[in-house]
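Budget justification aside, the reviewers requested a transparent look at the raw inputs and outputs of the sequence design task funded under Objective 1. We therefore reproduce one unedited record. The lines immediately below are the structure tokens for a 686-residue chain.
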């Protein structure tokens, strides 16, 4: 695997306005039009730009023409790529003015990657540096680089090799990355650095970060606004990790009845934090309602009430009696320090209403002292609602993270709650099958009338049937009612469809034949056999897959350097299986696979996740070969060459399946499993 070289723009200032993902997308669009038209002129730009997602619904071609006429009056002027980029920025800047301001407003979880404003918040930078210095100071590898001086750019330099990114992810969600897969040397070559960054970005997606429009090259270049945007999401996930009922059952004290508890379970962690804060403020006699971590807390009064309620031993009326907001904020921080809350923000950050830093501050207070009484009887009665089996919980997590990785406009916090109005499912369908959704028939949230939700979900089922999903006796109302089995069955088919379409698109230039589950299994077995390995899989239900050896051999077959076999166990004991499974997931992400399964899925041989894992590795492998072939003349590749995509595809016919004996069960993996789920779901109260 060679190191990635991004799109290069000669003007550094212009280059800095775009991420590598954006540059690649725009370069592809520009080149395709140049090929089509031979030469691109200013007059050609309006219809081209109007079709870009960035301007969809904002500008039509005529409006774009009026914007460009001011800077480029000569419609016959030939346009090169850099002029095309400047024209894009001109239209984008007009779009910001049209919408009434900048898109750069801070959202701690779903950070914008807009290319209009790249100013970084120095206070947030200092806070994140302080966080890194505090939590990673004893890390065996990083301790020689810490502490970082927040007044310098050392933080952005340290991120460039990917090690810090991976370590922060494991702080946020322990065990996400097998640290044996991280390349930790003083000096990394470009290939090793790219591996770390790929592992970091794919793992960030796997814990719920939004990394749309961020590539490894952007992090390798240490782009401050992108680095801070990603780091802020990771730190937020760490800080809010305890705001759920499994880790903090006493949160049930925030509600009075079952219905309220169900609503609370579906809230985003930051919403739960607000509810917790208001719970204590009300008891303390604070009459206002805190609805945000910015304007509602900037006077420091709410903090004074909260800390007095949580730590009466440090209670003081001086803070409340102080009139000056900055002085009051100073006293608030002094009182918080007595509770061992480290100071990651300044009085000015409170007074300025910095949403990210105030949220982190409240989350830290919650971690140190949540003030909730451990009422086991009440917690137990509410906990009975959380009857999801382990597999259901894992699948919900997998599909939630996958949906959020697609970059849909709506962020999903809970699949079973957030998808019931049908809108998010329509967004996902439009992403994976562009043009499939007729948005004129869709009802946009907030939706108060139940029948409007049913209309959305009926449209979802209609599109699913058009995509040939197995939806026997399934209606939109089943989704609205929250039938978990049916929803998971639908999402599984949607994820599988997406993966198979990606594979089909790679092979479209050769045969155009539909990819099947058996094709994927046959490809994997052939790959492993070709490199002299002995493992073979009878099906994606083969219990021998639990050792992990087959997938490690498959990863070695597609990239010989990626697996360190000295770290691999025999996979005979449960402990050895877990070590191998954890390593497989990290190695696959390090290679470039975007996957969302857990080690338990491999150990227990979850056939759905086994299929997706194999398909992801296959997609990466064929993609690399396709990229290589695009740089090689046709006569350099023999027909049916096993190293070519065409050769790989031509050898995937089911007539040859007997060579590696893929089970016929796997051809029916989706249809049979989902029909069973549908039958079970329809025989059960929704």
């Amino acid at each position: 695997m060679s190191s990635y070289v991004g799109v290069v723009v000669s003007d550094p200032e212009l280059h800095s306005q775009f991420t590598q993902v954006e540059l690649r997308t725009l370069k592809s669009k520009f080149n395709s039009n140049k090929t089509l038209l031979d030469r691109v002129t200013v007059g050609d730009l309006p219809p081209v730009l109007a079709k870009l997602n960035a301007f969809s619904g904002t500008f039509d071609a005529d409006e774009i023409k009026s914007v460009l006429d001011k800077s480029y009056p000569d419609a016959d002027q030939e346009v090169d790529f850099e002029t095309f980029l400047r024209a894009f920025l001109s239209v984008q800047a007009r779009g910001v003015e049209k919408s009434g301001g900048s898109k750069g407003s801070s959202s701690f979880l779903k950070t914008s990657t807009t290319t209009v404003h790249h100013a970084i918040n120095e206070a947030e930078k200092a806070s994140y540096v302080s966080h890194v210095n505090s939590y990673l100071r004893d890390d065996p590898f990083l301790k020689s680089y810490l502490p970082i001086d927040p007044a310098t750019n050392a933080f952005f330099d340290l991120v460039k090799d990917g090690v810090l990114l991976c370590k922060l992810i494991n702080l946020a969600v322990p065990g996400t990355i097998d640290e044996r897969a991280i390349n930790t040397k003083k000096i990394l070559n470009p290939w090793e650095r790219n591996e770390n960054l790929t592992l970091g970005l794919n793992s960030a997606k796997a814990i719920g970060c939004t990394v749309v429009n961020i590539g490894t090259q952007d992090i390798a270049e240490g782009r401050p606004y992108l680095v801070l945007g990603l780091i802020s999401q990771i730190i937020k996930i760490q800080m809010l990790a305890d705001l759920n009922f499994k880790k903090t059952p006493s949160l049930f004290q925030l509600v009075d009845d079952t219905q309220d508890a169900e609503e609370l379970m579906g809230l985003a962690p930051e919403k739960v934090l607000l509810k917790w804060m208001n719970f204590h403020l009300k008891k303390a006699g604070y009459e206002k309602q805190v609805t945000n971590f910015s304007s509602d807390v900037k006077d420091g009064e709410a903090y004074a009430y909260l800390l007095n309620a949580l730590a009466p031993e440090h209670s003081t009326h001086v803070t409340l009696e102080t009139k000056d907001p900055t002085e009051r904020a100073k006293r608030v921080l002094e009182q918080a320090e007595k509770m061992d809350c480290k100071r990651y923000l300044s009085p000015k950050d409170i007074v300025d209403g910095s949403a990210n830093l105030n949220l982190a501050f409240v989350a830290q207070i919650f971690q140190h002292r949540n003030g909730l009484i451990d009422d086991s009887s009440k917690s137990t009665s509410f906990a009975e609602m959380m009857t999801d089996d382990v597999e259901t919980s894992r699948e919900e997590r997998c599909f939630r993270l996958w949906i959020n990785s697609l970059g849909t406009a709506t962020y999903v916090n809970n699949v079973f709650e957030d998808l019931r109005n049908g809108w998010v499912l329509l967004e996902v369908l439009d992403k994976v099958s562009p043009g499939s959704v007729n948005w004129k028939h869709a009802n946009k949230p907030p939706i108060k009338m139940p029948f409007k939700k049913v209309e959305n979900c009926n449209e979802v089922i209609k599109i699913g049937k058009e995509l040939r999903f197995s939806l026997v006796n399934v209606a939109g109302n089943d989704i609205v009612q929250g039938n978990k089995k049916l929803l998971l069955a639908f999402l599984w088919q949607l994820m599988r469809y997406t993966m198979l379409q990606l594979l089909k698109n790679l092979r479209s230039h050769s045969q155009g034949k539909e990819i099947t589950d058996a094709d994927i299994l046959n490809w994997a077995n052939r790959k492993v056999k070709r490199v002299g390995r002995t493992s073979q899989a009878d099906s994606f239900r083969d219990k021998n897959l639990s050792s992990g050896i087959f997938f490690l051999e498959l990863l070695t077959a597609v990239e010989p350097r990626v697996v360190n076999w000295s770290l691999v166990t025999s996979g005979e004991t449960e402990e050895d299986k877990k070590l191998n499974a954890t390593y497989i997931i990290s190695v696959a992400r390090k290679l470039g696979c975007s996957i969302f399964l857990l080690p338990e899925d491999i150990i227990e041989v979850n056939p759905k996740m086994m299929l997706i894992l194999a398909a992801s590795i296959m997609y990466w492998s064929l993609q690399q070969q396709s990229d290589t072939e695009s740089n090689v003349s046709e006569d350099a590749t023999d027909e049916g060459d096993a190293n070519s995509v065409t050769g790989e595809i031509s050898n995937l016919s089911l007539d040859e399946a007997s060579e590696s004996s893929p089970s016929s069960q796997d051809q029916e993996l989706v249809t049979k499993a989902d029909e069973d789920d549908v039958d079970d779901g329809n025989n059960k109260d929704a």
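Residues 100-117, 632-647, 649-668 have pLDDT under 50 and may be disordered. The longest helix spans residues 484-507. Computational costs for records of this kind are itemized in the attached budget.
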